[in-house]
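Researcher: Good morning. I'm working through a list of sequences from a screen, and I'd like to move beyond sequence-only analysis. For each chain I'm collecting a predicted structure so we can compare shapes side by side. This is the next one on the list. No need for commentary yet; just the structure.
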Amino acid sequence: MSRKIEYQFVHDVHDIEEIVSFQETIWGRATGTGLPHLVASIYNGGSVIGAYDNQQLVGFCYGFPGFKDGKNMLVSHMMAVNPLYRDQGIGEQLKYKQKEWAKSYGYEKIVWTFDPLESRNAYLNLSKLGGYVQTYICSYYGDLNDEINQGLPADRLFLEWDLTQNTIEYQSTAQEITKLVDWEGEIPLIRPVVRDIPLDESYFLIAVPANIHVIKKENRELAMLWRYTHREIFQRLFSRGYVVM
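Model: Good morning. Structure tokens for this chain:
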């Protein structure tokens, strides 16, 4: 029987140090958020939430206050789960804990970015949590040199999670949604295939590789092809008013 995971809001400096060390095990030292920034955020409208298995830190999420277009929003900047504890719903619960906290503090929206090539993140953010995307940002972080992102432009989708209304859900009446980006080849080294069709339908499907990290390791040029294919397609769709959900 799996143990019950407990979720706690982190305030103590010692616990924050543990969060900093945990980040290094996931991303290395180059990408994490340092202790001074986490402390300052907690004292000025942000939050750090830890997930614990018998007092052992197994995941966390961190958000800081933001303001844009006349709305207060919490910028959910980082979240990670110990690889040994994935697929247990911990990331989803961390987000819901963050949502409860944000609503109680008067935030109207939670926003964050994620890599469009990370299918697991997309499934959580869009299908489970019900966020939506209408903005694509090229090289959001410039050129990251960590083990996960090295060699690829750090493009990101900007996700919005509205706290003032119910989750947005799409309702397609079409029997089959058109695949605007499909794939071909042998799994896992698949290639994107863009179909030359007019953008005049209500819904499109865009293929995402199931494990982009294998592609990055085995064929960097193929990973780059996926990156630039998504960049071109998403920018075209967003310029026409489409929303990813």
